[in-house]
Structures
1.
Amino acid sequence: MAQVNSDALVFYGATGDLAFKKIFPALFQMIKRGHLNVPIIGVARGDFNLEKLQGRAKESIQRHANFDDETFEKFLALLAFVGGDYTDPQTFLRVREALGAAKHPTHYLAIPPILFPSIIAQLEQSGCAKGARVIVEKPFGTDYSSALNLNKLLLSKFSESSVYRIDHYLGKRPVNNLVFFRFVNSLLEPVWNKKHIESMQITMAEDFGIQSRGAFYDVTGTIRDVIQNHLFQILCNLTMEPPQTLDSESIRDEKVKVLKSISPLRAQDVVRGQYQGYLQEKAVSKDSKTETFAAMRLHINSPRWDGVPFFIRAGKQLPVTCTEILVRFKHLPSAYSSIASKPNHIRFRISPDVTVAFGMLIMAPEEDMASVLSEVQGNPTPFPKEKDAYERVLTDAMAGDPTHFARQDYVEEAWKLVDDYLHADSPVFDYIPGTWGPEEVNELICPPGGWNNPTLQKK
Ligand code: BG6
């Protein structure tokens, strides 16, 4: 059911953390922009009612969005509530009733995947699945086989074109800009290959710990939480071949091809770390071996990338919160080689600010036969009313555009790459909070020329 506007949104998990931090603010912004004007039905278990939900929505929007009374009035006029257990058929009959005349509702499962089987069965039995699409939150499974099962379950009741698997990194403009930037600038394509690129590295650093998410994080870890999804998406955007056309399937086909040409992770290509103090976090097992940091080296076996190493690093309790990519270029042999002090680079900062910077060599001051690296920065000023990633993906899902969602084959291929490694026993090294991970990283997984440690300008 592609490209049909949905005429109602039902979201399950309406009293949860995600709804509070992300979904209410995103829906509010969509209404403000005139992108959402259909019934919104919040569903939750436990002792809740419409009035309480309205109160919670207000608090959430005041805290996380640009609240105004006029838009909030519109929001309240659209908001309904259905309470009940997700295994109880009555709950879904009430949802069906609340949907009224809607023919193409979107069901957004903002709930733990363990509840999916009963919800999906109930959606069908109650008639709520008819003409509908479904949005599912990450994590999409915990490994290859669980993702297969989840896909099987979803696709037994919905067609692939009606399933929208969220990876909110695909709702970030600077992440999508990577593909755009590569293919609209004719300067880049001739050098975007193994002949000219020495290595690429992607760093996603966070200067905070697991916050209050111990129960989730301890069974998840960095690789499952952000690498298998967010950072692999970035890698695909940096390395995919140009799609034949700009339709969603051609773009998603190219991403899957990248994943299929990566060799699965081997133990020697990964270093895992855990910050000191993690074991004392709430809801974390006292002898946990879960990683809060991981660095890895990957190879893409394709004519374009054969032999170029790709490095990915992510972690909690690192010195800064920043996601950044560094593409390093090779030196070309010439009479000037000996004075080329550093490789050229392109640096893409995804967050907290957005930067595209070219690192180029220029003549050193007062010295003709020496070079210094200087960055030429294009700073794409964020569009003043830039959408939040959740707002963008929910807007797309409601409009039936699947481009920025993970397709079935994509999630399965992404799990395949990390599956063997995740099921094997591997060491986890500790590191001091506020550092760039365990010392072992620099010995074992180090890009040529070293890691690029992002720094933030003091405000
Ligand atoms: C989430 C992870 O998917 O992404 C979190 O579960 C992580 O652990 C978050 O902090 C980072 O998202 P963003 O948009 O703040 O970079």
2.
Amino acid sequence: MSKISITTLNKMKQQGEKFTCLTAYDASFALLQERAGIEVILVGDSLGMVIKGQSSTLPVSMEDMVYHTANVSRVCRQALIMADLPFAADVTKEKALTHSARLMAQGGAHMVKIEGGSSRLETIRFLAERGIPVCSHLGLLPQSVFKYGGYKVQGRSAEAAAQILQDAAALEQAGADILLLECVPAALAAQVTRQAHVPVIGIGAGSDCDAQVLVSYDMLGITPGKIPSFAKNFLAESGSVEKAFELYVSQVKQGLFPGVDHKFD
Ligand code: KIV
């Protein structure tokens, strides 16, 4: 696999070739994922739950994010590395720039991911104008779990779906390089993907997105606590961590994952 850039991912979208993303927080998993052909490695703030045993992503700090991003970037040679801006790190656009620059300069990330729709437009534009590649995370925003009162599917009403479509277009216009949709009905995700000129990564968003992402501990079935219903256990089917990553790549690329059991209507 040659070095993956935003240009590579845009070309894959144009050619209708699906790409893959998984979370990693350390060198060993990142290397296995890269060898399996994963194009994008996400150092997600899900590390709060799966690495630190916290009950949500909210307590994850910038220090945590820089430490884990650096562990991943130190060994990766091909994958594009995306890192989450943790909760409230984008409270102002200036803070978002300082923290994004730190994730890139000290952590070695190639792109940052920011949760939120229209409220983040100004920040996304500010970062894009300063050369920071950004992925905008829409749909279920885990950093807003206390506002929702739980992890719930988003975009089910006509009004909520229209808002997501409008936010996706506006974020792309503001300079977002990638969109990520979490826990939305598959038909809505398909509509966003058709409308978008940038790649759309889905999680719990059906098979019509340009790419898929899962929390690696969920798809290995080892996350402490409840594993989301949209995450298939690839370890159970394949027998080893290496083969689980390979099976995931192969099933996403063939359009076999997510299937009917791993999506929302
Ligand atoms: O932190 C994370 O792992 C994420 C995924 C759920 C997309 O943001």
3.
Amino acid sequence: MTDRLRIIGGVPLHGSVTVSGSKNAALPIMAAAILADEPVTLDNVPNLSDVATLGEVLSVLGLDVDRCNDGRMRLATLNSRPTTAPYRLVRRMRASFCVLGPLLARRGIARVALPGGCNLGHRPVDLHLRGLTALGADIRLNRGNVIAQAKQLRGARINMLGPHGPTVTGTANVLCAATFARGTTIIDGAAREPEIVDLAEFLVKLGARIEGAGTPTIAVHGVDQLGGTTHRIIPDRIEATTLLLAGAITRGCVCVQGIVPQHLSAVLEALAAAGAELKIAGKNITIGASTGLRAMSVTARPYPGFPSDVQSQWMALAAVSTGRCVIRDEVFPHRWRHVAEMLRLGARIQLQGSEATIYGDSPLRGCPVTSSDLRASAALVLAALAAQGPTYMRGTHHLNRGYVDLEKRLAKLGSNIERIQITPTPETHSAVVDSCST
Ligand code: EPU
């Protein structure tokens, strides 16, 4: 059996929903548990297939990974200390590459498969490798694996800025490796994402000495040992935004609870400019859009800019808003695989290089669509919520990677959405796209 998401749009959503723990904070923090000499307990770990995949990688690397249903996860290093993260797992999820820095720092050698192609466009890891080389690692590529080796890493001055801004997981890898380097490491051009700040806070609780996380320059003073700790993962700002957009696109009224509003500043600014009614009360944000919204141009940039991970969902909103707008993505200039599927739903979009022009006021009509990656699936769900008639979305496995029970939570808010099982035929079987986006 395989499944489809069936969505019958046109229903305004109403009610409250609580945001899950952040996927992109949980993954590098789980990987960083390799550095700890004592057990680590994480709270608010989202129940996602990407988290399960990294759990498998860490088990292969000799960690005992114990995951409870209440979002708690305990990670403890066992006696055996393997150093190879195999391709069969890394190809399922790019974020597995986050084990490289911790393995190198803690075990002196790391063999991690080079992540392959990706639906978001070309995604090199040169900055990760350049940073680890600057710390004194000897790095070579052998049969598709990165082999990094160092008896003792040494502090250095490293720049993580690439042609599209700082690298997020590259900053995470170097930050983890530098915790054990002799002397001080200065990371210039560091990613400022809240997920990096959460990782740094976790490492500090383990005993690391880190200053400046959340700014473009991070200083790490190396230590000899890291202990264990308990840490609560921050709320997922991308999931929170997707839920707010679900309220706006259906012209309903939705309260998303458990948010850190500052993490959503760029999105909230754009929503307010589009005419959404927003009420922020502590950790809760309520969105209403009783009248139509204006299509607002946005440019995806590294944090604190508008997130690339929200660009496709914003396109869905723009398609049903009034007027014309331009969406640019400076982080992943070729992240446009959702566009063709949006066109099938009736959106009017013109794509030129790294920018898309969206002509609003499109009457969307449900139809069969195929998602190509995690955020594209979220965008198609949003568009389907605003469309007339049923949409059948294939590629639901992408959603499972980054959204906890999305359809159940949207259904609680009143949407007509259901996961349906179908018997695979040769045609449906070939539609299961194998890809990797995180
Ligand atoms: N880049 C390089 N060289 C490198 C690394 C990156 O040129 O060595 C380029 C990339 O090609 C891209 C830009 O730098 O153009 C930014 O890439 P980055 O390395 O920051 O992306 P990432 O760390 O691989 C994380 C998130 C992505 C999110 C991006 C951008 C995780 C696990 N993944 O990826 O999340 O889109 O940052 O914010 O944190 C998602 O959740 O759907 C997702 C794709």
4.
Amino acid sequence: MTNAQKKNETDTTTVQDDENMRPFETDVSRLLDIVANALYSNRDVFLRELISNAADACDRLRYEALSNNNLTKGSASFNITITPDRDMATLTITDNGIGMNKEDLINNLGTIARSGTAAILENLKSQGQEKDMSLIGQFGVGFYASFMVAGHVDVISRKAGEDKTYYWRSDGRTGFTIREATDEEAKQLTDNHGTLIKLFIKGDAFDYMIDDKIKQIVSAYSDHIEIPIYLEDGKELKEGETREPINAASALWTRPKNEITEEQYKEFYHHIGTAFDDPILKTHWTAEGVIEYTSLLFIPSLRPWDLYDPNAKSGLRLYVKRVFITDQLDTLLYPWLRFVSGIVDSQDLPLNISREMLQSNPVVSKIRSGVTKRILNEIDKLSTQDEAAFATLWGQFGAVMKEGLYDAVEHREALFKICRFFSTHDNEKQTSLSDYIERMSDAQEKIYYITGDKIESLRNSPQLEGFKSRDIEVLMMTDTVDEFWLQQVGDYQGKKFQSVTQGNVDLSKFEKNKPEDEKKTEKTAEHKKEIETFTAYLQTQLADQIAFVRPSKRLTESPVCLVADEGGVDINMEKTLRLQQKYEPGIKKVLEINPDHTLIQTLASMAAAEKDETFLKDAALMLMDQALIIQGESLPDPSGFAKRMAEFMQRGLS
Ligand code: ADP
Ligand code: MG
């Protein structure tokens, strides 16, 4: 270890003793603590993060300069330079991008700017996994990754168009100091705008100052960066010789597909997205015709932490003729595809269009349509080519994509093609709607479904019994969004969606698959009169709790179940509304009793004979309680239920 390196390791006084020192926010401190203490699986990523920021800064200035030429003084040859200094044990990354003023430095480097990083932290905190942080190196913690290899970091930056240069320093532990830069410091910038980041390399990270190591990291992680990256290796250039960039320095999506490796695609994905997993799907194409654009899109294999965060950063960047325009154009991608990241590079949009004007631009909506079609088509292809990958994708994002069923009628057909549902047909594999329809018998006209919280309890729903006994397949849906699209979308290919927990389903035209079930029904005919009396009896007894009682056509094994009335709100929907929106529709349900069930038949005989009035009263309440419990509802009078239950058990024992 050289003396300089030793000094880097221990030298924190410069920061702590400074009167300008500001402590980090708690979030930042925690993140830095993790960065410092975690065992990094891969420290190389710090350079990827810094280059990625430098490239973004150049992209942003290039856009700003379109409307304000003065910012770059007309010359816009953007570059990133990496300078190792082995004597001083420093590594410096300089860019001539947009730069940062005092406020930017404080806000961007003093707080966690990336919503993704904050969310990762939040998630790890909630899971109590702070100890096992060795994975975080893969996630990319942005600028703070510097502290994996540096004892402290200096930043000198000047924002394009402004005349003050600032100096920022931090030890990555306590806080940072900020002040105006001296002339000497300001001179170190390669241009009159941009940022210089100097890392004071720790003793165990010396290899990051070796030229070959730097070249290797750049080609592994940053080759797709369009801005040229130079290595300042101290070699004198001969007459007429120019320094060659150490990256390919052309926009990845403009290169021929067969010249791009999977690794390069992957690194590009890491650069633009906030996720650091491997994409599960990638598509790269050029649309030609009325509108022309090139697009390279990815679908992550892991659900982003902020999938349901309305402020989540969009992962889709818009370029116009290779110039970065914005990553905040929410009309470029439907919200139900918000997990898609990538770039769109348009040939048709004017370069000098303001971001506000883009919002309502017809070219943008045409691109959105094309992009959506392409994505849905690729997902459909994946479903036949790689079932496992498709299942993962659908499992992660199906619930989000189903929002599109009511949000984008234009794409509904294509969306339905990739929708998968659990069904009574198969216990493990989900089914598509077209497969469902293929299995329908000629007599069946509707697509039957049931909704609820959990697939396991749905499978045992009493309302399904009549369908199972007749081999009628029922789809089982557990996403909240299902309730909503089912309300909006009446049918699929002319077949109506019908809830099995709503209305009076008539299954009499379907044959039961077990002959003994048919016999039961014959026996029931004998009890017809008594059942009618009992139905009327229950109705008066339970009038407070239910709309009415009727003999069921959908039950075969259970004695009772609850359903929604024909025109009412379906029963699971009612629950959803109640829980999520604190809305009480106040609609009473229908209690169905199973006329084939021995219990019901016995009780019916008792009611007809007007025997044992108190017992019958309790029995009526017990039937109602049962129906509620199966439905996962709470009981109106739990202690009354317990008392009745005890009495019934007593009776059974004596
Ligand atoms: P992210 O890049 O995901 O926003 P980072 O931690 O990498 O998160 O960077 C935080 C912010 O700091 C960036 O969003 C940017 O605004 C600013 N920043 C970092 N490096 C530079 C740079 N070289 N030039 C200009 N701004 C920068
Ligand atoms: Mg970054």
